[in-house]
Amino acid sequence: MKYLEAHKTLLNFTGGTPLSFLLGMSGTSDQLLIFLRAFAATKGFALNVDTFPYGTLIQTISSPQEKTSKEVFVLMPWDFIPELDWRSGFPKKSLHMNALMDKASSVTEKLKKRKIEKILYLPAPTPSLFYDGQKNRKVSSLLTLEAESFCADILEPSCFSLSSYLATGMPIGGGKVSEVAQIIVNILLCQDKGTSKILVTDLDNVMWSGVIAEDGLKEIKFQPNGEGFPHFLYQSLLRRLIDEGVLVAAVSRNDPKVANEPFLKKDMLLTKKDLVALIASYDSKSSHIKSLANQLNLDLNSFVFIDDNPIEIAEVSTTLPEVTCIQFPNENDSLPKFFDKIDQLFNRGKLSNEDKVRTDLYRRRLESLPEVDLEPADLTKFLKSLNMTLELKSRTKLNMTRALQLINKTNQFNINGRRFEDNEAEKILSDNGKLFTASLYDASGSHGEVLSCLINKSGLILSLVMSCRVFQRRAEYAFLSNILRKWNGSLKLDFRATQKNTPVKKFLSEPAFSESVDEEILIDTNLFLLSHNDDEKLFSFIGLNNE
Hints:
- With 547 residues, this protein is an alpha/beta fold.
- It folds into 3 domains: 3-191, Rossmann fold; 194-377, HAD superfamily/HAD-like (Rossmann fold, 3-Layer(aba) Sandwich); 386-546, Aminopeptidase.
- It contains 23 helices and 19 strands.
- The strands form 3 sheets. Strands 11, 12, 13, 14, 15, 16, 17, 18 and 19 form a 9-stranded mixed sheet that branches. It has a 5-stranded parallel sheet with strand order 2-1-3-4-5, with helices on both faces. The chain has a 5-stranded parallel sheet with strand order 8-7-6-9-10, with helices on both faces.
- The two termini are 39 Å apart.
């Protein structure tokens, strides 16, 4: 969450369940408070935060405790040893290790006697107290052990910003304030204690490496080697969670038959029976999660959603703010933190007999219920927030390589599954045909070239494809609208049904498309443009319209 987003959330928040707590942090906390209240608001709580004055930690933990208020402390090394505080400068006299650790132990004893909901410890870098670097490192290690002795959660050292601390007294850096605030709110709502009950996971590039509908069954990887290793580890964690009574469901933008293939034909750690549900369609993932919550009679606060695509994460978190959303990491070095975060959200404890068969019980419940119509998410509002731009280009023989690659590897949104050799495409273009492409940009960056359209001189669309990365953006409608405006004359589609192009069938199921006598699909230009005027408004355009 960004600062402006947090500010806007608070402006639009009209009230909620009151929740009070004491934030114990020996530094300024104004910026942190804004994010705390914003995250609480997304969960339906009106947060009231008390703080103690700067530099009064010892006095606070030595005074009688308010019984009615929860307490969460964020501690620094200098809360245990004041001489380590950067704002105090370097000590003028030599110090003794034993005396310093006695100070730290004294603070620890006071903290242990106090009933504190949770303590977060930030192992920030400190000024050197000794000429001996080994001694300085030992002090840091001993302080971390002190914090662990009363079960403090250890924050990443990168959360500390010396420049911020020196300038304002705020020890947490700007980019990390939101992250720490979310941790604290989860603590207050007991989400760190494992109240989550169900994990909903994406499939492509999460359960396995690759896109099943595009790469095929043989190319996806989940084995404990190479590209498959992160996904093997992920499946093994899910395997453990399921064995300990956690529900796991899968949602995927895919054809159901294709999405099920790996579970039926591949030797994966997880089987179809391990999942409480596997939902594959081209509807929004938020609508599926909401449907699951209704059918299983589970609160949305108990859902955890995992996806590799930041746009899918944003769509679910925007539509269903109660759901905890975690992005699957794209770097292996981030896996330990990712796995640890998931593990902390589910507190399994001692297993009952019901826990051991929980997945089967819920799956049977779903099977016994009638199918329900999905409530469409407010995608329009979400899509507008992405600030999407389509860069449209007319390609020639000299710069058609990427466009042909997209045509030749795309299976799902492909009007006929045709593949084209370079010389075949060159011949079409030499004979007054056209090759149009579109690249997509949004608030998260560039998605590259994601749409291609090859048209012969008679106005027959020989190929129209779109990358699965941008499903449900309405980009295919905006793209074709621009081509229709550019083309001088009528256009037809060479449509052929394949085993994998279900999304195209949905695309063609509207009145603007009709079969002609030669079994090609004629596009009613005026009707299409009228029907998709709002889709065009979702984008800004560069390129083709200005040529």
